[in-house]
Structures are given as C-alpha cells and as structure tokens.
Amino acid sequence: MTTKGEAFAGLSVALTTPITNGEVDYDKFGEQIEFQIAAGTNCLCPVGTTGESPTLSHEVHERVIAFVVEKAAGRIKVMPGTGSNSTAEALRLTKFAERVGADAALQVAPYYNKPTQKGFYEHFRVLAEECGIPQCIYNIPGRTAKNMEPETIIRLAELENIKLVKEATGSLDQASQIIAATNLTVLSGDDSLTLPLMAVGAHGVVSVVGNLVPGDMLQLIAAVNEGDFARAREWHYKLFALCRDMLGLATNPIPVKSAMQLVGRDSGEMLLPMTPLEPHEVDVLRKTLTAYGLL
Q: Which SMART domains does the record match to this protein (predicted)?
C-alpha cells in the first residue's frame, strides 16, 4: 500500500552532534554527514534526542539544522527535530527548518506538561496546518511521560501534512492499530524493534546504531522488503547486541557517543547534564564493539 510519507521509508539516522570543548564541531559533523551519504542512508535526523537537542540553545539548534541541510545539498533527505512542549516554540523551529530547506520535521510529542489527547491533537494540527513540510509525529511516552493514544494518531492522519509516525512506545499492538487504520508511513523508534515492526507493516527505522553501522541496518531493511525473513533475522541477531548496549547501558545518547569515541569518529564529549559512561560500562561496550568487528 502506498503511504503518505513513503519518500522517507527506509533508514533514517538520528545523528549525534559532535562536541569539542563545549562547542559543536562542524568539521567532524561534516564528516559524519558524508559517512551517511556514502553508506546509502535515506534520511538524516539531526537535533533529536540523540543529537542532544534538550541541551543545545535555540540559536545552536537552528545553526545545526541549517548546517546539515547545506551539507546534504539535496543528496540525502533531512528531517530535523523541531518539536517542543510549547506549540509556539515548535512552530517557530519548524518554520525555520522549512525556510532553510529541510525536507520534513520530526515532532516529538509535547513532554513534561502532559497534555490531554485533545491537546496532542491541537498541537499537531497547528503544526500541520501552518507549515508546508511533512510532519513526522514522534511518540515516545518513556521520555514524554504521556502516551499519544492510537485513536489520536488515527485522527491526526486525516490531516494532509501529517505523513509519518516515529513509533517508540514499544507496543506492537499500538503500532499494528495505527498501521491497520491509516496510510501513515510508520518508522520504528527503537533499533531492536525494526524487524518485528516491519513484519507487521512499518516502513523502516529512525536509528541510533545507524551512526555506527548504517550499511548493516540497510541490509536488515532490504531483507524485510524482499520478503527474506530468514536473512532479516540473521541481521537482527547480528545487530542485537549493539542495539541492546545503545539502550541498556545508559540513557541515549551516552552509549552511542562513547561508541563513536571508541571507534575514533567522535570526541565522546557531551553537554551537561549528560555524562560519560562509567569505566566498567565502557569495558562492556568495548567488548561488544570488538565482538562485532568494529574494534
């Protein structure tokens, strides 16, 4: 079935933001973008949770969006995080992203203030009606403290500019309900759930481990799309330890930043209150990376 956001199906990578001495390292950032383009990644998602958006100033947030769009230069899609728990703030960031040439906007559900289902609907309705680029709803109740119920998302799918959902509830039932009732393009918000979600009709993933191994995530996605579930399971289990460590060792993006440092592609520096892995956690991660063949 054709879906509204099918141009964004496949692998989107939730980019880390390289930091050196407390500032964004744009030279290193450019290298990361080129790495993803060379790998065949479908879409870049800067300034999401993995990109440390909660600790970047609004000025730097906008600068990063403009930088990634400029570096991508039309060679790869760009879907930056522009969400907020303030509708006015999300609208301002999204209009900025649209103005500088982003292809879509990733909109995390309003967090902390815990809106009602009506509040969720009205928030996303404003963004859909007042912005011209496709909107990807990002439902992650583990971080926002409130689930957007399937009925709300199904209602939002009636709006022309709501085209995608990043599904990070961990509920196969919720994802199935959305897929069955809408023509939204559904992307997994959890690397380790890419295969099961695609098996019920999702269309790809917004990936954290894709910062390290985009080619392998692309192989998993291709195997599912080709109906080769035996090969897809092989890739799922090969990737599983990496996915486990990215989610289990500490809060995202701490483990992936540490992994990028260990493989020599990032300083590992983060902005407070995010702090590095403890030494024993680094040892676990190093063993996983070595077993995978990355070290």
A: DHDPS
Q: Which residue has the tokens 């460590």?
A: 245
**Residues 63-84: tens digit of each pLDDT:** 999 999 999 999 999 999 999 9
Domain 6-226 falls under CATH 3.30.750.24: no
Q: Is 206 annotated as a binding residue?
A: yes
Q: How far apart are CA 18 and CA 26, in angstroms?
A: 7
Q: What is the pTM of this model?
A: 0.97
**Annotation says 28 is catalytic:** no
Among the options 77, 138, 146, 257, which is catalytic? 138
Note the pLDDT tens digit of each residue in 136-153. 999 999 999 999 999 999
- Farthest-apart Cα atoms in the chain, separation: 49
Instruction: Read off the pLDDT of residues 207-229 as tens digits, 9 standing for 90 and up.
Output: 999 999 999 999 999 999 999 99
Does 213 appear as a known binding residue? no
| Catalytic residue list contains 166 | yes
Q: Which residues contact 222 (CB under 8 A, 6 or more apart)?
A: none
**Tokens encoding 160:** 């022309």
**Domain ranges for the chain:** 6-226
